[in-house]
Amino acid sequence: MNSERFSHIAHSGMSYHNPLSPTKIHRFIDLLNLNETSRVTEIGSGPGELLCQIAQRYKTKSILGIDPSEMSNEIAQSRIKERGLNGRITLIKKKIEDYSIEESSQDCVIAIGASHALGDYRGVLAAARAWLKPGGLLLVGEGYWKQSPPEGYLEFLGCPQEAYESFAGTIKLAEELGWHELYSSVTNQEEWDEYEGRYLYNIEEHVHQHPDDAEAESYVAKIRRWRRAYLTWGRETLGFSLHLFRNGKAGA
């Protein structure tokens, strides 16, 4: 199965590929307090909506998005062009391990639902700390356990319990590694259900409209397994949080 294409279809019509509402995300954008000379880099920039919103909110001229997905980069480039933001946002179609970011060069690093690109949440915290200037900002979105995950759910996800912390544990780990929390928010149940509902609908509708799609059968099987897992375990167990941290290294 082409996982990139599956994700592209499943997220059709969504401005952001995560369960947080645009209202909450825009609240964080307002707190970034960037200026014209600020340097901003997003890891896993996807369809580019967040970078476009930042460019429209601030006069920042150095905005970089790094994402290996061809489909996502095409959408992002189209949004940048439509909003007249060419020259202010640069897209790099690479995996982060294939791109070098200068140490202590960034004013803001963003990684929302992109921990896998840097190994895990600890990897994000370590990498961003190296890339940011003293006092720089990290906007990070991460899953967290709302309760102890059942063994069946861990087996379904293919991850150990240590893959996520609790909400409080997510913040505590960052603080232990030298970050200062500035602001945090979580997805509420309505936002989760809306996201998961759209995710389901987009695949089911695509298969209904394109029954001859060579991957239709595998798409249906995957989305229905995912839906059962969400209703059985995920809805009560897994949360999603967004955090704004300040780099607390010397001089911050």
How would you characterize the overall build of this protein?
It contains 9 helices and 7 strands; from the N terminus they run ααβαβαββαβααβααβ. It has helices at 3-10, 22-31, 49-57, 70-82, 121-131, 151-157, 167-176, 189-209, 216-237, and strands at residues 39-43, 62-66, 89-92, 106-112, 132-145, 179-186, 238-247. Helix 8 packs antiparallel against helix 9. Strands 3-2-1-4-5-7-6 form a 7-stranded mixed β-sheet, with helices on both faces. The termini are far apart. It has a domain at 14-143 and 161-187 and 241-246: Vaccinia Virus protein VP39 (Rossmann fold, 3-Layer(aba) Sandwich). It is of the alpha/beta class and 252 residues long. Helix 5 (121-131) links the parallel strand 4 and strand 5.
Structural topology:
Layout: H1 3-10, H2 22-31, E1 39-43, H3 49-57, E2 62-66, H4 70-82, E3 89-92, E4 106-112, H5 121-131, E5 132-145, H6 151-157, H7 167-176, E6 179-186, H8 189-209, H9 216-237, E7 238-247
Helix pairs in contact: 2-3, 8-9
Portion in helices: 40-55%
Which oligomerization state do the chains in this entry correspond to?
Answer: single chain
Tertiary shape: globular
Low-confidence stretches: none
Largest sheet: 7 strands, mixed
**At CATH's second level, what is the architecture of the domain at 14-143 and 161-187 and 241-246?**
3-Layer(aba) Sandwich
CATH superfamily of the domain at 14-143 and 161-187 and 241-246: Vaccinia Virus protein VP39
What fraction of the residues are assigned to beta strands by DSSP?
Answer: 15-25%
CATH class of the domain at 14-143 and 161-187 and 241-246: Alpha Beta
- Give helix and strand order, one letter per element, not per position: HHEHEHEEHEHHEHHE
- Remind me, CATH topology of the domain at 14-143 and 161-187 and 241-246? Rossmann fold
| Overall mean pLDDT | 95
Q: Main sheet: which strands, in order across?
A: 3-2-1-4-5-7-6
In terms of structural class, how would the helical and strand content be classed? alpha/beta
**Between the first and last Cα atoms, what is the distance in angstroms?**
46 Å
Question: How many whole angstroms does the radius of gyration measure?
Answer: 18 Å
